[in-house]
Amino acid sequence: MVDSSDDHKIFYFSDYEPLENSSLEFGYSDSSAHLSCNQQQAKTFDGRFLPAFYSPLFILGMLGNVLVVVVLLKNRQRLQSTEIFIMHLAVADILLVMTLPFWAVQAVSGWLFGEVLCKMMASVFKINFYAGIFLLMCISIDRYMSIVYAVQIYKKHRSHMVHWSCLLVWGLCIILSIPDIMFSQVLHEYRTNVTECQLNFPISSSQHWRITMILLYNVLGFLLPLCGMLYCYTHIILTLVRSQGFKKHRALRVIIAVVVAFFLCWAPYNIAVLINALIMLQIFVSSCAQEKNLDIAMSVTLGLCYFHCCLNPVLYAFVGAKFKNKFVELLSHTGICPKFVNLPARPSTTWSESADTSHSGI
Predict the structure, then answer these.
(1) Half-sphere exposure (CA, 13 Å, Cβ side) for 230?
(2) How far apart are alpha carbons 44 and 50 in whole angstroms?
(3) What is the pLDDT of residues 163-213, one digit of tens each?
(4) Cystine design at 269: which of 38, 144, 301, 360 (Cβ 3.0–4.6 Å)?
(5) If we measure between CA atoms, which residue out of 234, 257, 231 comes closest to residue 315?
(6) How far apart are the C-alpha atoms of 33 and 218, rounded to whole Å?
(7) By C-alpha distance, which of 274, 170, 268 is closest to 217?
(8) What do you get for the CA distance between the two ends of the chain, in Å?
């Protein structure tokens, strides 16, 4: 079993069980083997890798998503349903990348911010982690209905529905973060000799908690959204191929980019999480070397998940002619790019503006 030796790897948990009990979970026959299985190598790797990787992600994620929020808020009276979902997605990504400096510091010096901030950062991380994924699903369903069936489920006279949908997403994410609020603590990690912000479940039920949360994450956080996106976008592609009078080739490239980016960014981490679960269930028996490699793999693949926050503004906003026109208009009003004031609106070429079937205009 792979415990939490560092950072906020979402499903690395600390039980702090008596040594004789924990040796069984690691698949070892005695406690001396468990003692020799320290995580200093993984800790050293994280101390070098995470600050270097998280720093540019923090900057890019903040800049891209803040720009999206500013542009959309500037035009909030004319926002369509997909644009509202994209704005909420940008807010979720902003809050998610705001936790990066805390985890980077922990990788180098341990957790220095106290237990209150530990609970706050852990819950903020989990809320926005799920919110980003669920909002991607909302965008997929909205586009599927508007393009495949030419049905605007969030019409202007029913605009409150989109806000209720977003409220439902945030409420579900807060519920899913309750264990993080309850069980996150600042504890001394005996394998690396530093204090860390970790989930610390009761000994009597720790195994059930860990397995349940891992399965919830794999199903709710990856499998269902991936299947939903594949279903929606497959039917969108078929509809676009049958349609006439729009630039389908560019449209198809954007759709493929959206699905491929989601899969490449999220699949590696989910595979690592699944392997961790199989080790916990003792389906796989791990060695110390395998534990260390899995620790490092979790760090690298979790970084890919964060990288998706930087891709979201590009995939869901900046590729759209309508959004780019709004962005240029904002720059013109601020005086940064006055030469663009009289620039004609560029024809829409994105896949969400296929003929008259889409209302989003992104």
Answers:
(1) 8
(2) 10
(3) 899 999 999 999 999 999 999 999 987 766 788 898 888 888 878 888 888
(4) 301
(5) 257
(6) 31
(7) 274
(8) 45
